[in-house]
Amino acid sequence: MKVSNLAPEHVRAIAPYQGGKPISELAREMGLNEADIVKLASNENPLGMSPKAQMAVEDAIGDIARYPDGNSFALRDAVSQKFGVATNQIVFGNGSNDILELSARAFLSAGDEAIFSQHAFAVYPLVTQAVGATGVIVPAIAFGHDLDGFLAAITDKTRLIFVANPNNPTGTLIAKDVLYAFLKQVPTHVLVVLDEAYDEYLSAQHKSEAIHWLKAFDNLIISRTFSKAYGLAGLRVGFGLMHADVADILNRVRQPFNVNSIAQAAAVASLADEDFVQKSYAANQAGMMQLTQGLAKLGLDFIPSYANFISVKVPNASKVNQQLLQKGVIVRPIANYEMPDYLRVSIGLFSENARFLLALEEILK
Ligand SMILES: *Cc1c(COP(=O)(O)O)cnc(C)c1O
């Protein structure tokens, strides 16, 4: 017997997560110079990280021989102050991916159901399947979440609902009043994980108010990350905000040292650098304008996006993706999201966006 068959069926059935192709990998494959490659494939911050975070990282290196603070005391204090939640309402994760997984491990058993949307973030089915629970996929409406469809899909077995707002890879946003009305209708035996990885990229008018809703909904888990606008994707740090009783449960399945000491220091410094987040927001607005205007000029359809990426419909997406790679431009094909005609492009620096648009123009003409 193959040794892999010893793993349970629900584990063997998991389709591995496909990330954006690393720059070093494309350089090896195509014999290109790393410096000549543009990566717009993983929704990373093109401005890098806050200079304050960089200094904090350099400072923290001296202490690497020590285990990190398993309670993330300083970071907890900073998040508590910034977001106005009690310290016992915060759970830290190795990226917010960890918060999604902790939610599944804490609240889903084999046979339970978790609901999420078609075209929603790939991690929801992964963490659901890893614990032997059943994913219930609600068909999207115009690429967005159909929350009435979510309500209709709830059964006695439902324990978790994942809502991505904005969603990746579609960039769609659920209006606040619609989301609030939905939460009011979710029965109390179901937890809602509200994934707000891109909240910092929303305009003031659209920014989430869900933190205020925690008082009304004991079953709400809000997930946030330092990987996107804060520019710390490589360090892996995110957090969840929730009722203290829910936080207590998540902490029981959390690895004691899941957030490393350098990540904690960088996250504290990042939270204190509002200017950098504001600069990142402004750069993203400008880059989004540049890309949407460029794509429109090429006569291409795209899904209007509220995040730091945009999904564009191109004829022969898989072939175009290969041709972009040959030109040293990495974007993300999203056939695995049931969107085989689309490519997802992260908003980069002005010069990176221009490289992508020029390459695309050359390929399509
Ligand atoms: C990028 C992303 C995350 C964040 O992942 P991290 O583990 O925090 O790096 C979470 N949710 C969505 C929808 C994302 O696109």
Name the features.
about 375 residues, alpha/beta, Aspartate Aminotransferase, domain 1, Aspartate Aminotransferase, domain 2, 2 domains, four-stranded antiparallel β-sheet, about 40% helix, about 15% strand
Description:
The chain is of the alpha/beta class and 365 residues long. It folds into two domains: 19-48 and 275-364, Aspartate Aminotransferase, domain 1; 51-272, 3-Layer(aba) Sandwich (Aspartate Aminotransferase, domain 2), CATH 3.40.640.10. Helix content is 39%, strand content 15%. The chain has 14 helices and 13 strands. The strands form three sheets. The protein has a seven-stranded mixed sheet, sandwiched between helices. Strands 9-10-13-12 form a four-stranded antiparallel sheet, with helices on one face. Strands 1-11 form a two-stranded parallel sheet. α9 links the parallel β6 and β7 (220-225). α3 runs antiparallel to α11, α4 packs parallel to α11 (261-271) and α12 (274-297) runs parallel beside α14 (350-364). It is globular, with a radius of gyration of 21 Å. The model has no long low-confidence stretch (mean pLDDT 97). The structure holds pyridoxal-5'-phosphate (PLP). Pyridoxal-5'-phosphate is lined by residues 43, 95-97, 121, 164, 168, 195, 197, 225, 227-228, 233, 238.
